[in-house]
Amino acid sequence: MSHKPEKPALETSSYRPISLTLVLSKPFPSVLTNVINIIPLHQFSFRKHHSALEQVHRVHHSSMLGNSCIISLPTIYHSQRTSLLLPTLMMLPSFHLLWTQQEQLNYNHAWLNKWRIKASAPKSFHITFSQRQSDCSPVKLDNTILRQTNCIKNLGFLLDRCLTWKDHIKPKRDETKQQFRNLLWLLGKQSTLSFYYQLLVYSTILKPIWIYGIQIWSPKSTQQNSA
């Protein structure tokens, strides 16, 4: 059992169950996917050449077209043997021709319930990606109005409503500096470590912290600095 942060240690609800998957069952999804193409095109997880970076590209492109409402849903998949916490980012474009944003959310919520995936309304957030000041209309999940915010975190990205990346870059910069201070005994001037191994430490520990998603936020930050 994994203890939830800031929860009473003596209550059973303060722990998450841990289930170890059998080795033989791990290759089964890959085999099934090759036989039956059941993964929809809009799903990016568990697909080759589809990652969080491509999803963020979609968010950025959608925000350029107009207001886009994004719902950040911490979802939990329940089965007889395990419970899995699944971070979900749901896009509800405001320019949909057939459905309102609430109707889109209701449809997606019904799909989650069908597959025994529970979405937590109190822990969900509603953000509008747009260069304008106006927000998308409020939406409800289980008759609960989702809280609107100006920044959300998903899969290691901090996304602000204007996609300026300032909320993402500053924490990453501070984290890199702090990690560098912790490694001064290896990377500082007094270190006896050879340059080759210092470069290896930098490449494996420091570089991955700030380089994650640089394909997206680096051009954006460069444009802002030049402006």
Give a structural overview.
Strands 3, 4, 5, 6 and 9 form a five-stranded mixed beta sheet that branches. A two-stranded antiparallel ribbon has the order 1-2. A two-stranded antiparallel sheet has the order 7-8. The longest helix has 17 residues, at 166-182. The protein folds into two domains: 52-163; 166-227, no CATH class. The protein starts with a strand and ends with a helix. It has helices at residues 28-35, 52-65, 101-114, 166-182, 184-187, 195-211, 214-226, and strands at 2-3, 15-16, 68-78, 83-93, 117-119, 125-129, 140-141, 144-145, 147-148, 151-154, 157-160. Helix content is 38%, strand content 21%. Strand 7 (140-141) and strand 8 (144-145) form a beta hairpin.
Radius of gyration: 21 Å
Number of domains: 2
* Percent range of helical residues: 25-40%
- Morphology: globular
Count of separate DSSP helical elements: 7
Oligomeric nature of the chains: single chain
What brief labels describe this structure?
227 residues, alpha+beta, 2 domains, two-stranded antiparallel sheet, 11 strands, globular
Summarize the structure.
This protein is α+β, with helices and mostly antiparallel strands. The chain is 38% helix and 21% strand.
Strand-helix topology:
Elements: E1 2-3, E2 15-16, H1 28-35, H2 52-65, E3 68-78, E4 83-93, H3 101-114, E5 117-119, E6 125-129, E7 140-141, E8 144-145, E9 147-148, E10 151-154, E11 157-160, H4 166-182, H5 184-187, H6 195-211, H7 214-226
Parallel strand pairs: 6-9
Antiparallel strand pairs: 1-2, 3-4, 3-5, 3-6, 7-8, 10-11
Helix pairs in contact: 4-6
